[in-house]
Amino acid sequence: MVKCFVVGCKTGYKSNKEKVGCFKVPKDEKLLTLWQKLIPRGDKTLSSNDHVCSKHFKEEYIIKTKTILDQAYPLKIWKLTAQAVPTLNLWNNGEQETKMRNSKSKKNIDVEQWKKTLESHYISPQPLQLPDNHKIVELANSVDKLAADVEMADPQPENDNKDSANEPIIIEQVVQPVIEAVDNAMFDPTKAKLPSSWRWCSGCEHYQEDDPTANNITAVRFGVVNNTKVILKMITIAGEEVSYTINGALIKPPEFLPKSIGKVEELTDLLSRFDSANICGGFKFDVGKALSPSLKKATVKEYGERRSKLCIRILLKGSTCYRCQHLNNLAVGESLKPNKMDGLLERSQTLTNENRLLKRKLDRKERLIKELKQEIKDSRKLTANCQIPSRARINRYRVTVDKKFAKNFTRPKWALTSFPGSGVTWTRQLIEGVTGIYTGTVYGPDEPSIIDGKHYGNQADFNCGCTILIKDHGYPETYPFLGSSSVYENRGILLLRNPIEALFTSAHYLWSDNKQKGTVSPDLFKGPKWDDYVSNATIEWAEHADRWIQNIRNGTVIFYEKLLLEDTEAELNRLFRAINFMPIDPERMRCTLSHKSRSDLKRTKKPTAPLTSKHYSKLMSSIERVQVSLRRKGWPLLPLHLYNLEKIGKDED
User: Fold this and answer.
1) For residues 448 and 420, what is the distance between their CA atoms, to the nearest angstrom?
2) Residue 610 confidence (pLDDT) above 80
3) Contact, 106 vs 155, CB < 8 A?
4) Sequence-ordered alpha helix ranges (H) in 386-395
5) d(CA 470, CA 543)
6) Is it the case that residue 180 has pLDDT exceeding 80?
7) Angle 522-526-530 (CA atoms, 0-180°, nearest 5)?
């Protein structure tokens, strides 16, 4: 036990049999400094490893109970309040007594003489002889910030003899009462009668530990197993709860032993029954024979003995539990029929496990059904708003705005051809939205994705026959990417756009390293390089359109400006009639038209520059050439009324 730091205090010494609680020195530096001033010692300084016993603290500084649910429970380890300081019995030394008591004399104490005694470096004062004529003076409990509880005796009556007036006043130690359990404790377990060979086991003391579970006490019974002294049985009492331990293993309380107690008499009866109960002898086997793998797996070794892993360990009668006996019979080739109660218990446990598994399965199914219902609800909501994103395959629920591939080899190859920069990407979005079938491309996976990197049509094989149209910027007679001149069999849709818009769009794409939404500075739209580009681009625009107009036998021409600015639905219906894709789902058409202004891959800004008169002349010549070809073919003419010619600067050379 730790020793008290206060000089003269006997707490913790072998000669002192009194049990007194001790407290650790506070961790707070300010409070520690105050304690050091209150408990000075010449040989050492108070440190964090020292202790001070409860004799030196007032009752209001000590916490003895803990309130749980409005009920006070005694603390096995008492605790100090946050501002507790030692104030009692700090100014004695050695064997001298420190309690101040008055003599039988009616005379009183000289205050100044008593104060000087306290200030004399805590040396035990000699008895003081006081004059007879001093008056009674009431002293404070602290002198010069040193706390000391002093008890002053009342003056003697007037009729006392005169000899008593000359008796000295002796300062002696204030004897504090022994710390006992609080009055409201329900019962003291140690008052129960222990069977022979049982002993109460005192636990380790952790000072100032405030833990409700610390209020427990343990009784043990020792025995000898294989020449080894071990704890055979043990009970632990925490409040009213009782736990049982057999051979170091915590067991489930059997039916003949209670789980809780409330009186000393109940504890005495419990100890008697637990002591008389038999410990299961375990699994007996011939040590000369090797255990089979199944028996070895079903048993566990303890203190040199084997027992079933399901052994109940404690028996009211008999020496071996059913489970260990069953293993014994199996070892000798016999089989033991379980009694009805054990059979019912085993059946109950099996049903409990099965019910637990079924409950888990039902919970998983309920979660799945809940998720499916939420997905259906979200799908319906998004379908109404036309906000469901495209998918490569049909989802588990058919939604009208989903997109997919057609069945392989069910769609003929149809070209969707245009001069670069004519808006074919946006047109593909419209076509896919109405038909629900992806469009492909002759350029394969290297083609930039249409919608946020999730356009699956670019991944399709050119010869799969699973796309509605195939993007192609080349000429109809030669196919450098395919090596064939008749892959489309004269089927195609020609997309035409104002050549001025196509010219600038293509320039931004080419000069920004082929970025789908890239732009360049308008400063590049001037000089010899720009002049050469305009001359070549205007010729290529007309040449591309003229060759496809002459090559296409099944198909038609559509105009970007009509799709964007006029009747989009009429222009799309003309396209679908040309490729024999009828009828059209009106709901898909409505949804697509409501989102035709989406700009996944459109440039937010497209810088331009005025064109010179020479540029204008070449552009008009190309437009006229295409108009003539359209007129000869009998197809609709270019919608010049929708073309924006504000970029033309006629006065510039």
Assistant:
1) 13
2) yes
3) yes
4) none
5) 20
6) no
7) 105
Q: Tell me which residue of 510, 495, 508 sits closest to 605, measured CA to CA.
A: 508
Per-residue pLDDT of 244-256, as tens digits, reads 988 878 888 888 8
d(CA 419, CA 472): 9
- Count of other CB atoms within 10 angstroms of residue 565: 11
Residue 324: name the closest of 295, 349, 347, 303 by CA.
295
Q: What residues pair up with 62 in beta bridges, in sequence order?
A: 80
Q: What is the pLDDT of residue 479?
A: 54
* CB neighbour class for 624 (10 Å; exposed up to 12, middle 13-18, buried from 19): exposed
Indicate the burial class of 640 (C-beta count within 10 angstroms; 0-12, 13-18, 19 or more): exposed
Residue 299 amino acid letter? T
**pLDDT on residue 402:** 72
- What type of residue sits at position 238? A
249 closest CA partner among 301, 316, 202, 190 = 301
Alpha helix (H) ranges present in 512-634? 528-551, 560-565, 568-578, 586-594, 613-633
Output phi, psi for 492, to 5 deg.
-175, 160
Q: Is the bond preceding residue 583 a cis peptide, omega within 30 degrees? A: yes
CA angle 443, 500, 635 (to 5 degrees): 75
In a 3-state reduction of DSSP, which class is residue 432?
A: helix
CB 87 within 8 A of CB 147: yes
Q: Which two tokens stand for residue 435?
A: 């038909």
Half-sphere exposure of 241 (CA within 13 A, CB side): 8
- 464 in helix, strand or coil? coil
List C-alpha distances in Å: 366 to 312, 356, 378: 39, 15, 18
CB atoms within 10 A of CB 629: 17
Instruction: Tell me if 508 sits within 8 A of 519, measured CB to CB.
Output: yes
The answer to whether the predicted template modeling score (pTM) of the entire model surpasses 0.90 is no
Which residues make Cβ contacts (< 8 Å) with residue 105, sequence separation at least 6? Answer: 155, 156, 160, 164, 165, 166, 167
